[in-house]
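Feature request disguised as a bug: please show the residue count (195) next to Cyclic nucleotide-binding protein in the output. Example input:
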Amino acid sequence: MIDILLKYMSDFTSLSGDEQRAISESLRIDEYKKGKYLLRQGEFSAIKCYFVLKGCVRQFFIDESGKEVTTNFFTEEQAIPIINEKTQGELSKYSLVCIEDCILVVGDIDSENTMFNQYPQLEMMIRKMMEINLGEMQEQLGEFISSSPEERYKTVLRQCPQLIDRVPQHQLASYLGITPESLSRIKKRIKKSNF
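Example output, currently without the count:
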């Protein structure tokens, strides 16, 4: 698992091997069972962030009618930022739950600031990773808004095919903005057309 982090440090920094090992040894890595909530809608937002080494985390909220709306999935090598100075001390508008057993790097402001002071390149690496994640999310959002449900499903097939088998179908349907029945019909059409 640490190999994933070492790869990022090698790709985004010029930290020495010893510095990389020292950083990886000082990181907090926790295991979470399937069903564990990292954050619940209506709780005070934690000043934390996570990086997925293994597993899948779902982000969702419950709307005014009581319906769960899935807004994102985070899998291996993806950051889950919760740190938000603007919303610090406010109630969270969404929940994060592990939908598989997960191994996550857990960060908080104090430990990150200490490490950033000790290893300035680490802050640059995190910033580059967040810029990449933000760019990908902006692209996905633009594509999802302007595409049909079938096109959205095809995008998931192309970009994140592992989600199809890892995520419960009703959650995937919610993420795509359709009903589970519509998702079944789309899957059948695509299977017939050999996408």
